[in-house]
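User: I'm curious whether this sequence folds into something compact or stays loose and floppy. Could you predict its structure so I can see for myself?
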Amino acid sequence: MTRLLQALLLSCSLCTYTFASEQKAVTQLRISYLNHPSVLSFALPIVKSAYLRAGIDAEFIELPAHRLLQEIDAGHTDGDVIHAQEIFTPFSNIMKVGPPLTRVEYLLLCAPDVPCDNSVLISSPETIVATDQSKRVITSQYPSARNRNFYPLNFLGKLPELLNTHRFNYAIYIVSSEWPLPESLQHLQMHPLFSSEAYHILHKRFAKLAPVIGKAIEEELEKRNSQANQITKE
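Assistant: Here's the prediction. I'll summarize afterward.
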């Protein structure tokens, strides 16, 4: 019995030592993020706090939309703050971590005086503004849209300018309850396309760290919800 107990204690110690060693070996994770109001005001603070809670050092670096996932998949960066599931699923080296940070909705934005429905993706000859990733998701969900013309936009801050100056009549945009449509775009028509869940993501080589980070994200979300409920009661 004593030998069995000693063996169990030794096994637990080895597991703890192994995880601690792996955590120590990762001196600093490089986590990218997109310069988007939703990321900066909501997702980035939560993920940063989660890494502090988990005791894992991380550097957060801004990257353009068209490079984020390729950089992680190639192992040049270690993860990204938040991405919709349909966008990162095709990349074999990328895994989701923890619970979803939010639920997102893909919208077709339309100028005030043009048709605004699914027919735009099917038969309209007009060009649609979209990031490379949004285009890939839309053409996957709507195969007929593969024949449409897309104008690549990887700096979302330019979107209001492109639509408000009438250079284009259509664009794809992502919103959620945490980040509604910016005021500069609220005069446009909005046609919902589909919804998805968005997660923090990491390269799969960090699979053993993922449960710790995921748990910390869950706790940060619970803390945020608790604070929001408290404010509501007040």
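Summary: The helical segments are 2-25, 37-54, 68-73, 85-88, 119-122, 132-141, 159-164, 210-233. Residues 7-24 have pLDDT under 50 and may be disordered.
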